[in-house]
Design a protein that fits this description.
Structural class of chain A: alpha/beta
CATH topology of chain B: ABC transporter involved in vitamin B12 uptake, BtuC
Mean pLDDT of chain A: 81
Number of domains of chain B: 1
Low-confidence stretches of chain A: 275-285
CATH superfamily of chain A: P-loop containing nucleotide triphosphate hydrolases
Number of helices of chain A: 10
Strand content of chain A: 25-35%
CATH class of chain B: Mainly Alpha
Shape of chain B: globular
Mean pLDDT of chain B: 88
CATH architecture of chain A: 3-Layer(aba) Sandwich
Helix content of chain A: 25-40%
Low-confidence stretches of chain B: none
Order of helices and strands of chain B: HHHHHHHHHHHHH
Structural class of chain B: mainly alpha
Strand order of the largest sheet of chain A: 5-6-7-3-8-9
Oligomer: heterodimer
Number of helices of chain B: 13
Strand content of chain B: under 5%
Order of helices and strands of chain A: HEEEHEEHHHHEHEHEEHHEEE
Largest sheet of chain A: 6 strands, mixed
Number of domains of chain A: 1
Distance between the termini of chain B: 47 Å
Number of strands of chain B: 0
CATH class of chain A: Alpha Beta
Distance between the termini of chain A: 52 Å
CATH superfamily of chain B: ABC transporter involved in vitamin B12 uptake, BtuC
Shape of chain A: globular
CATH architecture of chain B: Orthogonal Bundle
CATH topology of chain A: Rossmann fold
C-alpha cells in the first residue's frame, strides 16, 4: 500500500502533473482538531485554525509546546495522529506550494553546494524527472536571490554565509519554489538586530506578493509588533488573534505557567519569560 | 623508464586488472560521494561484509564459476540492506546497532559456509581481500554492465539525490518519492559493492566507497566536481596500486587501498597546512 503511494508520487513527479487545483474561495490553510501523540505524550492536541491569504502569523509558546511539530505537519513531513489539514480546500499531500525553512542547526552547512544550487533545489518539484534546469529556471533563481540580496554570493559555498544570509538563502529557495505558504521554524534565533530587520524587509516583500507566512518565534515583543496575528500554543491552541488579545496576561500565564513573571509597569503589564533556547530573557509589553 | 610502465602491460591479466580497477574505482567513488555526504560509511562497510554468505553459496553451488557468485552476492546484499532498515524501523534498536547485528551475523555465516570447503584459507582470502589480477573477461563484462547502469541511475536522479541528501524535509515538501529514492540508493550501494568484490574484496570495500570521496570532499565545494575528483583519485589509486603490486609483489587489493589512503593523507595534510598558513597570514 505504501509502496503503491510511493509509485504514485513517482509517476506524478515524472509527468509533472498538476497536483491539485486551488479552490480560491477556501481559506489558504485550514486545520481542524489537529492532534499529534507520541509514546511519550501529546505534542499537539485539538488545534484548529484558519489562515487567510497573505497573512503573516507568529507562532509562540514555551519550549516543547509543539511549534515545530505543527509546522512539520502543515508541511506534510509528519503525519498527524488525528485531525485534518486543508490547503485551499485539499489535503497537504497533493501540494507543492508550501515551503519549509528549517532551523539553521538542522542543516549540514558543509554539504558541497553553492547558494545558487540550494535555491535551484526549490525548482526540482517543477522540473520533474530527467529534466535539467532551463534558462527560465535560472531566471527564477536569479530573481529570487536578487530579492533576498544574495545575488552577489550566488557562487559561494553555503558554509561561507552568515546566519542572516543563510536564512535569506532559504527564503530565496522558497521563492524559487513559487511557494504560496512559507513556514519558518525559529528563523530569528541567534541573529543580530540588523539581520532580523533584513529578514522582515524580505517578509514585507513576500506579503506584498500575497505569500502567507507562518513563523515560529521566541521573542514575544517581535511577535506582537511585526505580525498580523499571533498564535499562542502550548500543546493546545490557547489564543489566536491580534497580539493585544492573544498575548493578554491571562493567556500568557496559561501558556508559560510558572516560568512567566508579570510585572505591573506604567505602560501596562510587563511579562518576563525565560523559556528561550539560549537562556536570554525576552520581554513583551 | 618507459619500459617500467610498459612491461607489465604485456600480460593480459594485468590489462584486465587495470581496466577493472579503473572502472570499479570510478563507480564506487561516485556512489561513495553519497555514502560520505550522508554519513553511511558504517552501513557501507557492513553491507560489504554481509554479502559473504551470498558469495559462499554462489561459490559452493556454482562450482567456483563467477557468474552465479555475482548474482547470489547481489541478492544477499539487497536482503541485508532491507534487513537493516527493517530492524531499525520496527524496534527501538538504533540503526548502527542493527547494522552491527546483521553485519557480524551474516559475516559469520559466510565464514562458516566457506570453512566447509577444503581449500578454505585460500578461497576465504580471495573473497576478503579481492583478486583483481584474476579478473576474467566475463567479470569485466559484468563490471561494465552493472557499473554503467549504476552510474546512469546516479546521473538520471542527480538532482533528486542531491535534494534528498541535503534536505530530506525539502524532498518531502516537494513530494519527491523519498522512501523509494532512499531504497534506490541502498540498492546502488549494494550493486557497487558486488561489482567491486573482485578488486578489493569484502574487507577493504569500504575504503573504495569512502576514501576517494572523502579526499574529494576536502578539495571542492561543488557536488559534481566532488564526484569527478573522487573518480580521478580512485582510478589513479587503482593504476598506481596495481603497479606497486606488480613490482613489489604486494596483494593487489591492499596495494590499491594503501595508495588511496596515502593520497587522502597527502591532501588532508596539504589542506590543513594551507588553512593554518591562511590563519597566520590573516593575523
Amino acid at each position: 500500500m505504501n509502496v503503491f503511494k510511493e509509485f504514485k508520487k513517482t509517476s506524478r513527479h515524472l509527468t509533472r502533473q498538476q497536483r491539485h487545483e486551488h479552490d480560491k474561495d477556501a481559506p489558504i490553510l485550514h486545520a481542524e482538531k489537529l492532534s499529534m501523540r507520541y509514546d511519550s505524550g501529546d505534542a499537539l492536541s485539538d488545534v484548529s485554525f484558519s489562515l487567510q491569504e497573505g497573512e503573516r502569523i507568529a507562532i509562540v509558546g514555551p519550549n516543547g509546546a509543539g511549534k515545530s511539530t505543527l509546522l512539520k505537519i502543515i508541511a506534510g513531513v509528519q503525519k498527524q495522529t488525528s485531525g485534518e489539514i486543508q490547503i485551499f480546500g485539499h489535503a497537504p499531500g497533493g501540494h507543492i506550494c508550501i515551503a519549509y525553512v528549517p532551523q539553521r542547526n538542522q542543516v549540514d552547512w558543509t554539504f558541497p553546494v553553492t547558494v545558487a544550487d540550494v535555491a535551484m533545489m526549490g525548482r526540482v518539484g517543477h522540473l520533474g524527472l530527467f529534466r535539467n534546469p532551463k534558462s527560465h529556471d535560472w531566471d527564477v533563481v536569479q530573481n529570487a536571490l536578487k530579492l533576498v540580496k544574495l545575488n552577489h554570493l550566488a557562487k559561494r559555498q553555503i558554509d561561507q554565509l552568515s546566519g542572516g544570509q543563510q536564512q535569506r538563502m532559504f527564503i530565496a529557495r522558497a521563492l524559487a519554489q513559487e511557494a504560496e505558504i512559507i513556514l519558518m521554524d525559529e528563523p530569528m534565533t541567534g541573529l543580530d538586530a540588523t539581520s532580523q530587520e533584513d529578514i522582515f524587509g524580505i517578509l514585507d516583500e513576500l506579503q506584498a506578493r500575497h505569500v502567507t507566512a507562518l513563523i515560529s518565534l521566541h521573542d514575544l515583543k517581535m511577535a506582537s509588533e511585526r505580525f498580523d496575528r499571533v498564535m499562542l500554543i502550548n500543546k493546545h491552541l490557547l489564543a489566536m488573534g491580534p497580539a493585544e488579545e492573544s498575548l493578554s496576561p491571562e493567556h500568557l500565564i496559561s501558556a508559560y505557567g510558572g516560568s512567566l513573571q508579570l510585572i505591573p509597569s506604567d505602560e501596562g503589564t510587563l511579562a518576563l519569560s525565560d523559556t528561550c533556547c539560549d537562556g536570554e530573557h525576552h520581554i513583551a509589553q | 623508464m618507459l619500459n617500467f610502465f610498459l612491461a607489465p602491460l604485456q600480460y593480459p591479466f594485468m590489462l584486465r586488472g587495470l581496466s577493472a580497477a579503473v572502472m570499479v574505482g570510478i563507480v564506487s567513488a561516485v556512489v561513495g560521494t553519497y555514502v560520505v555526504l550522508r554519513g553511511m560509511a558504517f552501513f557501507g562497510d557492513a553491507l560489504a561484509h554481509s554479502i559473504l554468505p551470498g558469495v559462499a553459496i554462489g561459490y559452493l553451488l556454482g562450482d567456483g564459476k563467477r557468474e552465479p557468485l555475482f548474482w547470489s552476492a547481489l541478492v544477499t546484499a539487497i536482503i541485508s540492506a532491507l534487513g537493516i532498515s527493517a530492524i531499525s524501523r520496527n524496534t527501538k534498536i538504533k540503526e548502527d546497532t542493527a547494522i552491527g547485528i546483521i553485519f557480524a551475523g551474516t559475516f559469520a555465516l559466510g565464514v562458516a559456509l566457506i570453512s566447509t570447503v577444503n581449500s578454505y584459507t585460500v578461497d576465504l582470502a580471495h573473497f576478503l581481500f579481492g583478486d583483481v589480477l584474476g579478473v576474467g573477461n566475463s567479470d569485466l563484462r559484468l563490471i561494465v554492465i552493472f557499473g554503467g547502469i549504476t552510474l546512469l541511475i546516479i546521473f538520471a536522479f542527480y538532482k533528486e539525490f542531491m535534494v534528498l541528501s541535503f534536505d530530506p524535509v525539502l524532498a518531502s515538501t516537494l513530494r519527491l518519492p523519498v522512501k523509494l529514492l532512499d531504497f534506490l540508493l541502498l540498492i546502488l550501494i549494494a550493486v557497487t559493492i558486488v561489482v567491486s568484490l573482485q578488486t578489493v574484496g569484502v574487507a577493504l570495500m569500504v575504503a573504495m566507497l569512502v576514501t576517494p570521496a572523502a579526499t574529494a570532499y576536502l578539495l571542492t565545494k561543488r557536488l559534481p566536481i566532488m564526484m569527478a575528483f573522487a573518480a580521478i583519485v580512485a582510478s589513479l589509486s587503482g593504476i598506481i596500486g596495481l603497479y606497486i603490486s606488480y613490482y613489489l609483489s604486494i596483494a593487489s587489493g591492499a596495494a590499491i587501498v594503501l595508495v588511496c589512503t596515502a593520497i587522502f593523507g597527502l591532501v588532508w595534510a596539504g589542506v590543513s597546512l594551507s588553512k593554518t598558513l591562511n590563519i597566520k597570514g590573516a593575523k
